[in-house]
Amino acid sequence: MPYLRVALDVPLPRLFDYWLDSATPADIGRRVVVPFGSRRLVGVVLAILAEPEYEASAIKPAEAVLDDMPALPAPVLGLFQFCADYYQHPLGQVVHTALPTRFRDPNPYRVAEALRYHALDSVALQAQVPKRAALQQRLAQLLATPRSEAELRAAGGTAWKTVQAWLQDGRVRAEQLQPGASVAAPGPALNIEQAEAVQAISAAQGFAAFLLHGITGSGKTEVYLNAIAAVLARGEQALVLVPEINLTPQLEARFLRRFPGVDIVSLNSAVADGERAAGWVRAARGEASIVLGTRLAVFTPVPRLGLVVVDEEHDASFKQQDGLRYSARDVAVYRARQAGVPIVLGSATPALESWQNAEAGRYRHLRLSQRAVVGAQPPQWRLLSTKRQPLQDGLHARTLAALGERLARGEQALVFLNRRGYAPVMHCGECGWMAACTRCSARLTVHLRERTLRCHHCGDEAPLPRVCPGCGNQDMKPLGQGTQRLEDTLAERFPGARILRIDRDSTRRKGSFEAALQAVHAGEVDILIGTQMLAKGHDFPNLTLVAVVGADSGLYSADFRASERLYAQLAQVAGRAGRADKPGEVILQTDFPEHPLYQALLDDDYAAFAATELAERKLAGFPPFLHQAVLRAEADRLDDALAWLRQAALLAPLSEAVTVWDPVAAGMMRLANRERAQLLVQSTARSRLLAFLAEWMVALRAQKAGKVRWSLDVDPLEL
DNA sequence: AGCACGCCGACT
DNA sequence: GTCGGCGTGCTC
């Protein structure tokens, strides 16, 4: 059977045939180097054929099948095919996005061995190392028992360099990893709800999807850890997906502590290419027991898969926004079903898609309504109406008073404003001129410190004008509140307070975010000002007040998902307030204190919010009650993009089950000098929509695009 | 997507 | 006379 069917990283919805005398079925799933036009490419063998489908005389010989990577097993290849079909993406490109980048290189990959390191004599080593070298002392201690590279690296700083040096002089030895059942270190006792959740997950026979809805602080992670422990005890592997945030190191450390000596593979953008490939290989060989990674990790071969976990399953970072626009959460569900294993989707504020799946009985609802730490109180919400109240620099008198109280008590406070910069608008009171980006349809944000106007969409920058470009007026005013302005305001109001702003601007330098968190933990900060970045997961024991400013913009947005995102964000940031011994308070300044979203937050009643929201969506005909896909087009001129989409609409196959809307300019019509338009199609029947899209794509690909760039987004998160 | 081939304008 | 502009067409 001398022919190979090869997946190549080219935007063509087909595979390519090559011949190779030595081809055997064992080559399926392996890397192969082939000539392609004038290039040399790396492909993946998807099938072995006796006869090619392509014209035999035109077939070129493959250069070599590489056996430096474990062959992709059939289920993973099936997963790729599913993604290609579902997201209407060329199979070859699916395969290549799913593979660690290191494997796109035609040079053979040298497989790193999975090693464990331990000191020949830990006590002696501790004695040899200088007492003050805390890191080395700690390493010497750790090395008393065999440790993985990841565990040692987690010790921080130059840990790995030190271990390598000890390896060189023979004080530390490396040995081959012995895969096998492991024992988890004891964790805290579970409360009844947690125990029941773990029990339900562990008792699942075959595929079962669980929606683990647990309020902030209810100990979802403990449920994962216990369910995973049961999986590892059976000698199976666990796949854990986490959002793309700077929180992964903490979670990783927690896993390492709980499962000492277990090979835990980390797959995220902070992990270097080589290490990622090495971890991927260990997972694929079944040596690593836990794969902990961001959305890309969903494609990792895991031969003895026993459980899939998607933490913070509502998080938007599970959806890739370019190329293969997949939802790792949805792919994970498919994968669990395919492997016949349980999957746990965990969140304090589940995606309404998941919530509806639970309501419909497709997922099993597990609820954690208690705080895991005994005695811990939920934060106390206070809605401050800003309707008639005169604000002082954007702050309510009672907000200022609450901040003052915290300062007096020596406790920390967080002011949450999800808008960086000094002010969102530069405005001329005389002629009404506003600073707008020349390349995008967006306002420019005032950055007073740098004396610039910046576009937060394309990154373009202009000097701050002294006089109005419209009328020459010298009295230009920054309008509205940004974190920088808030910082100035608070510094003025609380002269003695130590104020720290944490946003993308203040943490641009590498390591500065970590340094800032460190400062907060060390008690060097009284008032924190933060955006989005700070909302997630970081616990500050001495933080007892969260004041939310400017949240109302999410209430009446054109985007039907805005309120869902707002709820999630506010619930998350509220979770930053208070610890076991210190009850937290959350203040929210709003023009709409009676709004049901805020009322639901007040009662910590996500179920009520979800019910109202879903009822509205059902009435309005929005997901999850129907399924959508968006065809996007961009060109130098809006007319070209719209014209292409109109043509595309004409090519749409006739289908009673599918509605094709008129092309419209995109919400952000102009971005980085490109004009964007889109066309929405939707259907209540997912399978009908899929069939429609498949047929449509054939016609669209045959259509010449000219200067128009287009893409299809199935299950879009943003329209 | 690359990359080659191809046919028309200002340079050593 | 050639270098190079990017239109269009193909890749097993």
From TrEMBL:
Class of this enzyme: isomerase
The enzyme's E.C. designation: 5.6.2.4
One MF term in the entry's GO annotations: DNA binding
Protein name: Replication restart protein PriA
Family of the protein in this entry: Belongs to the helicase family. PriA subfamily.
Cofactors: Zn(2+)
Catalysis performed (reactions): ATP + H2O = ADP + phosphate + H(+); Couples ATP hydrolysis with the unwinding of duplex DNA by translocating in the 3'-5' direction
Species of origin: Chitinimonas taiwanensis DSM 18899
PROSITE patterns (UniProt xref): HELICASE_ATP_BIND_1, HELICASE_CTER
Oligomer and partners: Component of the replication restart primosome.
Textual note on the cofactor: Binds 2 zinc ions per subunit.
InterPro entries registered for this protein in UniProt: DEAD/DEAH_box_helicase_dom, Helicase_ATP-bd, Helicase_C-like, P-loop_NTPase, PriA, PriA_3primeBD, PriA_3primeBD_sf, PriA_C
Source organism, top-level taxon: Bacteria
GO cellular component, as recorded: primosome complex
UniProt binding sites for Zn(2+) 1: 428, 431, 468, 471
NCBIfam families, per database record: priA (TIGR00595), PRK05580.1-4 (NF004067)
Helicase ATP-binding domain segment(s): 201-368
Example GO biological process: DNA replication, synthesis of primer
